[in-house]
Structure formats: C-alpha cells, structure tokens
Amino acid sequence: MGHIEERYDVLIAGTGAAGLCCALNLPRTARVLLITKDAADRSDSFLAQGGICMLRGEADFAGYFEDTMRAGHYENDEAAVRQMIARSPAMIEELVGYGVRFARDEGGNFRFTREGGHSRPRILFHGDETGKEITSHLLAEARTRENCTICEYTEILDIIAGQDGCCGGVLRDIASGEIFPVYADCTLLATGGVGGLFQNSTNYRHLTGDALGIALRRGIEVEHLDYVQIHPTTLFSSKPGRRFLISESVRGEGAVLLDKDGERFCNELMPRDVVTGDIRAQMQKDGTDHVWLDMRPVGERTLREHFPTIFARCREEGYDPLKVPVPVVPAQHYFMGGVKVDLDGRTSMPRLFAAGETACNGVHGKNRLASNSLLESLIWAERAAKAMAYFDQLKTFPPIDAASYADVAALRAEDAKHIREEAEREATID
Ligand SMILES: Cc1cc2nc3c(=O)[nH]c(=O)nc-3n(C[C@H](O)[C@H](O)[C@H](O)COP(=O)(O)OP(=O)(O)OC[C@H]3O[C@@H](n4cnc5c(N)ncnc54)[C@H](O)[C@@H]3O)c2cc1C
C-alpha cells in the first residue's frame, strides 16, 4: 500500500474502466485517491474481449437505440440509452487520445465487428483483448497524473455518512489489516460486479458486490438486484475458479452451436438471454452438462488474427478450434442491477456517486446488449467526474469506530446474504 493521507478531494473505490475514467476526467487540481482490493490491473475491465460499441453516424442512432432497448426487454431508461449512444463517438475519441488502438482497415478507418443482438456491425475491437487495450492505457495515463494516488490491495469496507452526506470511506489495508478513515468531498463507488458471489462466473473472484453491500447497509437506493446476465458461451471446465469466456463476436463471425449429435439448435445471433435459454433447454433435452461451439466456419485467418487469446486458450485446454468443436456452457457474466444512479452517476446520498457495473442507471434494462458495458462504464464515470465539481468542501468529519469492522469476513458474508435476499425479494415482485 502506498502512503494514504486522511483527506482528499475525491475518493474512488475501484480501478477498472469506471474508476480510472472518473479520475482522468477530474480537474488536475483535484487531489484524488484511487484504491483497489487487488492489483490495479486485475479488474474485469481488463478481461473484456469482444469490444466497445460506437454510434456509426446519425443514420445508425435509431438502430443502435432499438437494439439496446430490444435486448433490455424495453425496460431500459430511454434517456440513459440516448445519453450513452450520443456520447459514444466523443468517448472513443478520448480513448484514442490516451493511445488506445482499435482495429483499422488499410485506409486507416475503424473496422467494426458484430455481436448477438446487434442489427449491424458497430463494435470496435483490438484483437480479442479490447478491455486490456483500453484499461491499460487508462491506468498508464492515471499513473502519470500527479494529482492521482493509486493504492493497491486496499479495500473499502464502508462509507462515512454525516450531515453533509457521504464524507468518504472506511478503508482497510489488506496486508496489515489496518482500518482507517479517508475523508473526501465526493466518493465514487466503482467496485464492479457480483460474479465472485457465484460458483460459475467469468468475473474475477474478488468482485463480490462490495459497494452493493455497503449501499444495503446504509439504506442507499439500489435497483434490480435480480437482473443478472448469464453469458451463453464459456469454456466448459470442471476445474474451480473463473470461467473463460468465448466472446460473442466469435459467433458474430460465423461460429455455430451444436447439440450432442452435432446439429445446430438455435439462432446464435439472438441476445444473450435468448441463446442462454436455448442452450439450457438443449442441455436438458440431451442430458449433457455442455453443448458444442464449432468455430471452424470462422476460418483460420480470422481465428488467429481476431481471436488469438481464445484460440490459444482452447488449445491449452486440449481443443484445437480449427479441427474440433469446443465444449461450452452458460455462466454468470454481468450484473445489470446495482446502486441506483441518475444520468450523472449520483446515488440517493449527497456526495456519493457510483459508476460501472456497480451502478444501475437503467441503460441496460433487463438484459445488456453486447459491448455496451465498457462504454456505459466510461460515460457515467466521466459524467460523475463533471458532476462532482458542484460540491463544496466537507464541513464535518465524523469519526469512525474501526473496531466495529474488525471481522471483515463476517461483514462480507452478511453483505452477501443481504444481496441475495434483496435479489430474491425483487425477483418475486417482478
Ligand atoms: C470475461 C469478460 C469479458 C467481457 N467482455 C466485454 C466486452 O467485450 N465489452 C464490454 O463492453 N464489456 C465486456 N465485459 C464487461 C465489462 O468488462 C465490465 O462490465 C466493465 O469492465 C466493468 O467495469 P468497472 O470499472 O465497473 O468494474 P471492474 O473493471 O470489474 O473493476 C472493479 C474494480 O473494483 C475493485 N474492487 C472491488 N471491490 C473493492 C473493494 N471493496 N474496495 C476497493 N476496490 C474494490 C476491483 O479490484 C477493481 O479494481 C466483459 C466482462 C468479462 C468478465
């Protein structure tokens, strides 16, 4: 852990795309502390394979809007969807400004790929490591900023609530176990999703919905905790740990799903929840614990050039995608619900913001359209950074009772229980 002061202008919990993008959009005069529970480069943002959506000119607006709404079962917040789509070209420009490279044709124009639920190709990519390309540049940029301090292996256990609203966070140095307060004029919760609470998930195991647990404890509004997205195609394995994702864009480029007899059984380009339902029904019918993904139609060149990581991983597991189909199974992947926020990432508590997978701004409705989440994380983080400028300096610095957080395992277990109970309660209301 680096040196942490007791007072900052902004405290950011999480160094994924959301946390970093917020830091980079704050004025350089603002003193910013970013903390992360693990190493700074171990976030789901680094794992994103498929890509990031971008509006391809005004003529594409209606189509992009409709695709997002249809995937979300029309439960999306329309204003949020409009904001994300309209802002996408400027956000991509900002990323390119940080040095992010997206695939381009010989003329230097962006190349676009397609994933399930999209009516046309509008996804920018960098091989099958788009998230790493984007987030490593954001992290490198943040490390050059003198106003930003990044502390790894430091977790947020709680927020500090007072008369002014949120006054900062209760933090813990994971190595020493020391628990201490950090006061900040504004705080951003960007602790990612909830995959660590599931046995089978594509997420890093340390992403356990910690900000949600805090929100539930503190009576901060949350929304749709039952809206969990299952990804249809993760590499089947009986080993414990994170499940390896086989991006939807592999199907976008022609890969097909096969049953136990080698027959196709669904439309591979439907939204995720539909394909997941079809796979589960087929597994039940066949009495199997996986189905097969045949990537041979994609062709050797595209497999090697566009999907080198997926190609290599399948081979490591003993399946050569050029020769045989690979076994795939659905697994938890993304969380559409979260801490409820407005169009600027404001939560129900003054001075407390949330962005990225931790937050629910309504953009995804009931089901996220592929490659909308990096974009959404970045845009709401940027909006939150701008909105933070409207808060004056804290006037009160409530003390914390460090001893009350001593049993962290019990705290997290209790939070996980609350999250599950709330999700079950919401599911019965729907
Ligand atoms: C395998 C995979 C592939 C994906 N592919 C795509 C894709 O192609 N396109 C797309 O748009 N989206 C994709 N996604 C989704 C997307 O990557 C995430 O939704 C997005 O990156 C979330 O960003 P974030 O900043 O909110 O969270 P994350 O990037 O997950 O970052 C969370 C951060 O919070 C930290 N943290 C957690 N708890 C605490 C705590 N208590 N205290 C302090 N820090 C904490 C973590 O260490 C981490 O730094 C994919 C996701 C996965 C898992």
How would you describe what is shown here?
With 430 residues, this protein is α/β, with parallel strands linked by helices. The protein has 2 domains: 7-227 and 336-429, FAD/NAD(P)-binding domain; 232-332, Flavocytochrome C3, Chain A, domain 1 (Alpha-Beta Complex). 33% of the residues lie in helices and 19% in strands. It contains 12 helices and 16 strands. Strand 6 and strand 7 form a beta hairpin. The longest helix is centred in the C-terminal third of the chain and has 22 residues, at 408-429. The radius of gyration is 21 Å and the shape is globular.
End-to-end gap: 44 Å
CATH class of the largest domain: Alpha Beta
Bound molecules: flavin-adenine dinucleotide
How do the SSEs run, as a string of H and E?
Answer: EHEHEHHEHEEEEHEEHEHEHHEEEEHH
Computed structural class? alpha/beta
Calculate the mean pLDDT score and round it. Answer: 95
Radius of gyration: 21 Å
Low-confidence stretches: none
Report the sheet with the most strands, covering strand number, pairing sense and barrel closure: 7 strands, mixed
Principal-axis shape equals globular
**Proportion of residues in β-strands:** 15-25%
Any idea how many domains?
2
CATH topology of the largest domain: FAD/NAD(P)-binding domain
What CATH architecture of the largest domain would you give? 3-Layer(bba) Sandwich
Total beta strands: 16
How much helix is in the residues?
25-40%
CATH superfamily of the largest domain: FAD/NAD(P)-binding domain
Number of H/I helices: 12
